[in-house]
Amino acid sequence: MFAGLPELGISNGDDLKETLTNCPDPLKAIDQFQMENGILLPTLQSALPFLDLHGTPRLEFHQSVFDELRENLMERVAVIAEGKEADRYSKLEELLEKSFPLVKMPSIQPVVMQVLKHLPKASACQSSVSGGKWCTKYGDSAVIYMLVPEKKLKIVMADKELYKVCAVEVKRQIWQDNQALFGDEVSPLLKQYIVEKEAALFSNDVSVLHSFFSPSPKTRRQGEVVLKLTQMIGKNVKLYDMVLQFLRTLFLRTRNVHYCTLRAELLMSLHDLDITEICSVDPCHKFTWCLDACIREKFVDGKRARELQGFLDGVKKGQEQVLGDLSMILCDPFACNTLVLSIMRNLQELLSQDALPRDSPDLMLLLRMLSLGQGAWDMIDSQVFKEPRLDLEVVTRFLPAMMSVVVDDNIFTVEQKLPSEEKSSQVYPTLLPDAFYRYLQENRVACEMGLYYIFHIAKLRNKNALQRLLPSLVDTYNDMAFGDIFLHLLTGHLTLLSDEFGSEDFCSVVFDNFLLTSFSSKENVHRHILRMLLHLHHKVAPSYMESLIKTLEPPKQSSEQLKELYTKLMEKLEAHKKSSPVLEEKPSLDLGLHAVTVSTTTSSAPTTPF
């Protein structure tokens, strides 16, 4: 407990024990020990007997004085570190040398940790001091940090208890030279982030108003993981670079696009805190900042589109690696969502103007960015940092095919509003253009737009168009139609057509012709179906619901989450049955009497049975 005191020339318990063992007069020896090791204040000695008279133990008095001095010293350390004195680093370094031998003493440890915490802060700009120094380069800039002496850092790092209690400012210095240790600290946070994102996609809240994309960028950045990572990085460019490398590696290993979201959120969180030491040297900062504003508005307007284009066109020769990070930022689902929504809006405007997609520069830029984002994994995996070339047939064939579907729908809608004598015998089309089918299967950019067109028609509550399009999603590029993000949004949008589920024909299209085609091989599809039914079970045609429940019963080897969802659905169905009014059979009014004919001379009215 008192290890380190002898190094500072201060007596400890062992010294007192030795003195009492060898002295002829123990009482005199105790008085002498108190005089040598007590508070060296002459006027205090005459006051101490008064405390004895009041029954105050000397230990209690000395402890209260010690606590007060410790608090004052810790406050003074913070003031020195924040000050502008030229010798502030040397003062703290001297205090560290004197106090560090007592680092394992619980009462002194807070002082040592306070000095370790503030030492880099006091020395950040004092590069002339002969202490340790680390310089990192990011791009053309350099950041200098004065280090806590390496010998002391090794002692802290080797002792688990010391490492646990030391401030994050000290840990940063340990981490920057120990990537494996930093990885151990960061890894649980990254796992937690992915779990939280997946939990949001499987949320029980099935609604268009409260979807995965509802939270604003600023709200998302207040998440626990982002805030913790931001604190761990601080202003340390080397640690920031390590986190980015972890995210790239995990994205390559798992293809999980949520790592792309975290890459953008982390940079913008540092931007919010005005950490210019990092933001000014990350070449993606201004691009991400501009895109973040678009995500907030859920639309890329003309002005911001030109700014984003300027950043893409400004990538210089020899700096092509920046495209890898830009593609990750554009691969963020929130960025993709904004880009495709903007494309849909752009197409509607072109349709109203009778203009072709290829004649719109804004549309071509949006497609360019969407293509770059969709190709992020391939680019980072191949290490060929070159923008993927957009297939022009997406513009010249797929988009016209998709717009023709819109035109078909508009013609049918107008036709239905005409007076009956002016209506033609035209029926709603059921087939889709071949180009639409083919590009859904072969091109990921086209497939993304096709999927979002489904949301567009669902928002309009267009049952006919939905029944025409949903079966075409069974076979899409890389099974994108069975991804969690699409199914999360689709189930929310289908709640807008809840009344249509009373029709077995509509149920057959949604379930038999689409969702149930893959639920047995893809558990995520099974879970999304159950999520939706938890909200719509009372709207589904009863006879269809009965067969659906049998089909959706989870197999024994399925996950606990799936079984739990199914159990919840069964409970809801049972509760719904009990709450439904039971129609009792009405008693017959037939009294078993025969009809009697009443004749009258004044009227020839027909006879009336009783």
From TrEMBL:
One GO cellular component, as annotated: NELF complex
Top-level taxon in the UniProt lineage: Eukaryota
Gene Ontology biological process terms from the UniProt entry: negative regulation of transcription elongation by RNA polymerase II
Pfam families, A to Z: COBRA1 (PF06209)
Keyword Protein biosynthesis set for record: yes
Cross-referenced InterPro entries: COBRA1
Residue ranges crossing the lipid bilayer per the database entry: none
GO molecular function term, any single one: translation elongation factor activity
Protein name per its UniProtKB record: Negative elongation factor B
Organism encoding this protein: Takifugu flavidus
Lineage start: Eukaryota, Metazoa, Chordata, Craniata, Vertebrata
